[in-house]
Amino acid sequence: MNFLRAIAGLPALLKRPAFVLQVLVTDFLPWVLWQEPLNILRGYFEYARAFSEILSVPFLLKTLLSPWKGIAEEMPSVVRWDQFLQAFFVNLVTRMIGMVIRLLAILLSIVLQVVLFALFAVLFVGWFVFPIIAIGMIAVIFIIV
C-alpha cells in the first residue's frame, strides 16, 4: 500500500526538481558514497574478527602437538618396557590425531577468511556498480520504447 502511495506521489515530486536535487545531494549521495560503504567495511571486519576468534590460528599453532582432548597416559619407567611402549604409542597416536584435527581447523579458518573476503569484495564492488547498471538499463528501456 505504501508503495502505491509512493508511486502516486512521484509526479508531484517531479514537479519540484530543486527539492529532488536537494534530497539527492544532501541525503542520498552521502549515504550511497560514504555511509553504506563504511557499514559494509565494518560488517566485514566484524565477521573476520569473529571467524578468527572462533578458529584462532595462533592458538591452534601453539597447541598443534598437544594430545587430542588431553588424552595421554603417564609414562612408566623404561624397565617395564611393555607398558612403556604401550603408553608411548597411545601418546603418539593422540598427539597425531590432535595435530591432524588442528591442521584441518587451520585450513578451514583460512578457507573461511578467503570466502568471506571474496563475498565482501563482490558486495563492495557491486554496491558501486549496481547504480550504473540500473541507470543503463533504464536508459535502454527508454531508448527502446
Overall body shape: rod-shaped
The termini sit apart by 28 Å
Number of helices: 5
Domain tally: 1
Mean pLDDT: 87
Secondary-structure class: mainly alpha
Topology:
Blueprint: H1 2-8, H2 10-14, H3 17-54, H4 57-62, H5 81-144
Helix pairs in contact: 3-5
Describe this structure as you would to a colleague.
Helix 3 packs antiparallel against helix 5. 83% of the residues lie in helices and 0% in strands. It has one domain. The longest helix has 64 residues. The protein is mainly α.
Features:
mainly alpha; 5 helices; 145 residues
Sum this structure up briefly.
The protein has 145 residues and is mainly alpha-helical.
